[in-house]
Structure formats: C-alpha cells, structure tokens
C-alpha cells in the first residue's frame, strides 16, 4: 500500500476523487493544501508521499536509465492509488490528477500511459517524462478528457518545447489540452492557472 495522505470527503462517500501528486522536495501535505484554492469541496483527496520527497532522482528529461528504477516504482505507487479509488467504486470519468512540477510530470506520464476518459488532468508545470518522448509507451484514448498544463515559457526545469511536444501527443490521443505559458521565470502556481482550472475543469 502506498503512503497516502487523505483529505476531503471519505472515499466511500464521494462520487469524485482527486489524486494529488507533490513536487520534488515537497510532501503530500503540501499538495493537499491546494484544496484551499481549487474547487474540490465534493472530492475525496488522495495524496501519495514519495520516499525522501522525490519521485525520481534526476531531471525528468535525463537519460532514461538514470531515472528508470525510481520512476517505475513511482508509477506503481500511482497505480496503487488509482486502484484504491477504483475499488471504492468511483468511476474513471470522475477521477482527476493534479500535480505540481515532478508531480505534474508524473500525473501526465501515468495518465498518458493509461489514456481513458477521466475527469481531468491538471499539470502545474510539467511534461511527459523521458530523455525523448517515446510514443510507444503511451496507449489509449482520452476521449476529450480536459487536460491543463501551465508553466513559465522559460522555466528552468521544464522547457516550453517539452510542454508543447507533450501537449501535441496528448491531443493526438484524444485529450482536450489547454496550455498556458507565462512570460516570467517563476517555478510556481499562478493565480491565473488556479482561476482557469476552477472555471474550466473543476466547475
């Protein structure tokens, strides 16, 4: 079982769930604090905790072998969290992934490896993981799942080019993708991003 922090409605009483994935050096408790800003009042919130606060040790675009073992272990943690939501009887189309930075990358990676109709994927600064995007890793059809990627257009950790490549692939897999790139150097979550996802995904 993953190390999970829970918040919001009890999972056995909720019709919707959000799997919230924290960034490098942060914690499950950190990402859960976004519920102060996002429209998540009627959600069960599940936030897995990464060992030592990190889902994988190197950049998400490092040579694949460097992150391989840790990444696959982290994908398994997300799968186990997903399985817990499914076992509670919540439908996939009512499940949302929300992540920041490393957690945004992991959210997009897991969802795109298992593309299907979801409630939504909200990636605050992230892209698909790998030295290069390997299309053979990704399967399924998002069936117009709304997917948001917000970031700086010159983020030090997540290049805008990788966001664009990720958005293109996800769109081809049926995702209804919205990207918002801001002309600032900040690695953060902006009020404009919060407003957009509240008005367009978490209505």
TrEMBL record:
SUPFAM superfamilies: alpha/beta-Hydrolases
Hydrolase as UniProt keyword: yes
Domain of life assignment: Bacteria
Species of origin: Algoriphagus machipongonensis
Xref: Pfam families: Abhydrolase_2
Protein family membership: Belongs to the AB hydrolase superfamily. AB hydrolase 2 family.
UniProt-recorded Gene Ontology molecular function terms: hydrolase activity
Gene3D superfamilies in UniProt: alpha/beta hydrolase
Keywords linked to the UniProt accession: Hydrolase
Phospholipase/carboxylesterase/thioesterase domain sequence ranges: 11-199
Protein name listed in UniProt: Phospholipase/carboxylesterase
UniProt keyword annotation of Mitochondrion present: no
């Amino acid at each position: 079982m993953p190390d999970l922090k829970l918040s919001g409605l009890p999972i056995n009483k909720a019709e919707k769930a959000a799997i919230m994935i924290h960034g490098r050096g942060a914690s499950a408790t950190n990402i859960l604090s976004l519920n102060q800003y996002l429209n998540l009042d009627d959600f069960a919130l599940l936030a897995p905790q990464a060992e030592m606060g990190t889902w994988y040790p190197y950049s998400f675009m490092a040579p694949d072998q460097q992150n391989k073992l840790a990444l696959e272990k982290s994908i398994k943690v997300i799968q186990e969290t997903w399985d817990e939501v499914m076992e509670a009887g919540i439908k996939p189309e009512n499940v949302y992934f929300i992540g920041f930075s490393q957690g945004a990358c992991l959210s997009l990676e897991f969802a795109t490896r298992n593309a299907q109709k979801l409630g939504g994927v909200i990636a605050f600064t992230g892209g698909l993981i790998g030295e290069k995007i390997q299309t053979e890793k990704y399967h399924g059809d998002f069936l117009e799942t709304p997917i948001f990627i917000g970031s700086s257009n010159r983020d030090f950790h997540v290049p805008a080019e990788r966001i664009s490549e990720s958005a293109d692939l996800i769109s081809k897999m049926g995702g209804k993708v919205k990207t918002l790139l801001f002309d600032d150097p900040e690695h953060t979550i902006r009020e404009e991003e919060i407003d957009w996802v509240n008005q367009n995904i978490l209505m």
